[in-house]
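Data deposition worksheet. Section B asks for the primary sequence of the deposited chain exactly as it was used as input, without tags or linkers unless they were present during the calculation. Section C holds the resulting structure in token form. Section D is free text for depositor observations; keep each observation to a single sentence. Incomplete worksheets are returned to the depositor.
Section A, Depositor: J.P.
Section B:
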Amino acid sequence: MRDYADGAVKPVVDLNRVERLLILKVSSMGDIVHASPVAAALKRAFPHLKIGWVAEDRHAGVIEGSPCVDRLHVVPYRVLKGGWLRRESWRAVRALAREIRAERYQVALDLQGLLKSALWGVLGGVPIRLGGHRMRELTPLLMRRLPLKENPKRHVVQQYLDAARLLGASGEFPELYRSPEEAHAPNPPVVFPLFIPDTAVASAHAKLSELNALPRFISMNPSAGRVWKRWDIARFAELSDRIEAEWGVPVVFVGGPGDKPLEERLAQLKRQPLRSLIGRTNLKEAMAVVRDSWVHVCGDTGTAHIAAAFGTPCVSLFGPTDPDRTGPYGQRERALYLRPQCTQCPADRCVRYECLQWITVEQVLEQIQRTVADSSTDTTPRSASSSASTP
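Section C:
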């Protein structure tokens, strides 16, 4: 591996001699999607490698069934949320630790950089543990840091892939990594190895048919993990009403069971009939709905990255967070972002959390119109294992 300081090759581990590698990326939905190309890159470079992945049960479905992940180890988040000192929690921890140990992983690659991820490499008895992302909390004591540089404007997908490149996987190298023979080599595509079973697709389409939303519809997700990442629900209602009334295109809302209060507000605010699958799909079905949308509209949330992974056009609305770094990969031009116009907050952080609400319905509608016009000329098929070109 090449070191940033002097360009010298300093091997950490030869994956040609490794049979089993464990990826530690336990949450969240979008982060797991962003990290998934690492599994694809490692499989492409080392076809013999058996790859395991540790993820929390609330997000594990995103990577479940991936053709590049041989074993998925599920962390019982709901059990551990009550505290690791409870008897039920200790039983769950011991059971998962035994499961990981039984696989005899030789290398663990932590792409989370938190104690909740690093511990599974230790408890799983993995002898070589490498930190491939920002290492926080006590993680520097539990693993070896890979010589990666943080760049706030470099997309996290590429930052994760830097770790794979340092382990020998081919790809787009930063200039400091590239040898003369690599300098002119073609870059392979960034592959998001996500999988949706046919049964989930059929079930999702049946539910869409009940809403009279097929064959062409726009999906919207009004939710996000944090309140300040949520665009005003009244604007989602107005936006969907205008699309349905002016374009005659059905709009279907998606979300989890915890988003039912948002569904209730939409029902109160909308003038057009509400088409909603909020709380009515499992994760794989929701992925199918997003994938098969004409356009997906949402904030900074997991479905934005699922859409991008499958090549579905995504109009995303960003507030304090930077779409250059964490936006839908390869779709920066479709992200609406007004934070740079703010003169009230410090340049390095947001304190007022107002800029997301500066985005108007008219601006979003115009971006959807441009996106629809662009997508009408795109004949690239969407598949269950999709790839996106490196931007």
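Section D:
Residues 198-383 form a domain with the Rossmann fold fold (CATH 3.40.50.2000).
The longest strand covers residues 50-56.
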